[in-house]
Amino acid sequence: MKPAIKKTLAFTAAMLLAASTAAAQPFLRLPAVIGDHMVLQENTNVKLFGWADPNSTVTVSPSWGEAVTVKAGYDTAWEVELQTPAASPDPRSILFETNKKVVKRIEDVLIGQVWLCSGQSNMNWSAANGIADMKQELEGDLNPQIRLFTVTKHSTPYPQEDCNGRWEVCDARSARYFSAVGYFFGKRLAGELKQPVGLVNSSWGGTPIEVWTPAREMNREPRLVAAWKEHSKSRREWQIGSLYNAMICPLLKTAFAGVVWYQGESNKENAALYGEEFRMMIESWRRAFGRQLPFYFVQIAPHARTEGGITGALVREQQALVAATVPGTGMVVISDLVDDVTNVHPRFKKGVGERLAAWALAEVYGRHAGKYKHAAFRAAEFKRAQAIVTFDEADGGLFCNDGAIAGLELCDASMKFVPAQGMIDDRNRLVVWSKQVSRPAAVRYCFSDGAIGNLFDAAGLPVAPFRSDTDNGAAAPAKQPDEAVWHTTVRVQGDRFELRKLSLGEKFFINRVYPLSLVPARFAGFDMLVHAAVKDGVQHCRVTATGNGRIYLVARRNSVTSADLAGWKPERNAEIRYTTHDRNKPGILFIYSKQVKAGQTVTLPQTKDFAGVTLIASKIEFAK
Prior knowledge:
By secondary structure, the chain is α+β, with helices and mostly antiparallel strands. The chain has four domains: 28-107, Immunoglobulin-like, CATH 2.60.40; 112-302 and 328-363, SGNH hydrolase (Rossmann fold); 303-327 and 376-481, no CATH class; 489-623, no CATH class. The strands form seven sheets. Strands 2, 4, 5, 7, 8, 9, 10, 11, 12, 13 and 14 form an eleven-stranded mixed beta sheet that branches. β20 and β21 form a beta hairpin. The model is unreliable at 7-22 and 472-481 (pLDDT under 50).
């Protein structure tokens, strides 16, 4: 045999031996997001997953409960669901082992609240980028019950199952490079809830919203794709959906309490479409995560290097439209937190994170965290030479601490705006006028890229910029104002009920694992008298009001309940949702009310709808 042939055969044999050895080597791999120091969402079914030898069995043993065994597929993938306990500062562990004797253990696992922080540079920037209040924060003691995970920047045309990153205990080293907005958001949550908080930062500076949106969703709208192609040359040749694929898809099995978002500066070129695209992104994420995730975001800050320009103002207007029309969202206004409008990255982030946290505390956790909704434009009325502007969320009045209200403009039918003066009248309305405009047709406040206003509400929150002249509906009232909620205490007699709280994550039935995923903010934290979901209606329940007001109930709205709820008035903007076994089809409920007098007793209606009728009230005194 020739030496060359011998050498070739020997090499081939060595390669075959190496391949067989490698093939025989058993393995067990976990994704990056599952590891030491992680936080798992409390009181929920969490998914743990990974990869192991084809057809092998994987046993997952949490230190707080029973082990679960599953078989890996031919593609090596496996997945289990575990029920987590209530939040606790106590460290837990999880053991993973296969029938091929491969063992992995993750330690220092905390149970608490987990939030996703995403967007572009103003979400991404940290103390290492010069954020002033974050640099100061690092000089003090940091809370080790806060855990941080940063998704390494990556872009791909195809959805990914895993990402690069690792969980870290919050300290001066790890927090130095973490999102400052995310950190301050989590710090306030951890402080007020007295629970561990896990923060996942998946953000990238300079990115437009299209790259965070699934391509399949965007491609259904040719008009949006055409606009993208028109502007994409100035966006580093990003691909639609590329960051969603690489930096969101690997997180889809993670149980999050909600999302905080700060982005928009990179969409000024097609600002008029931003609201439509933002809505699409939020709804697509919710479908992908399988639940109605609370979604709170930051209205982009004033920024202008030269006078004039309204592209940033248009983005802010579109963001306000999304906040007003997409359920489960909320927007914070930060124009007062900017000290240099020529810098697209404001140096202070503490107020931004804390305002986001105020939304979460109030709407997700039912905590009274002070006023968290900014005053917003409702309508403008033009009388003689004045524009009279009314506001929503302006309880306690509006104030200007300076000599004159800044940023006001008026125009007549010519639509040529001129500077204007204004005052707050005794009815808490903004009255605007100008000597140059005798018959005003439209009014604006801080509607330019770099304008910083000086109108505030009683809580010190800035009034959002606005204009009354718009052809896209953004300035019109987006929804009817909510009716006042009556905090009436009720006494109840009945059996087979259980007293719980109307809050996100709470189970809506005694006999179903159906957690609430959407709760109207004004009813969050109410007492809720739950019962079993049954086919033949619910048990009898007699309710007595202790004062004049309303009694509230929750029921589905369909042909079965329509006759049963006769005499009960549906509340505006009062949709409730719960997650079912089919995560793409949530259960939808509505709140109804009936006016009552003190001492009046009402028997709740009966219905054969399986969801029945559920009583809610500010306080329920329940006696079996």
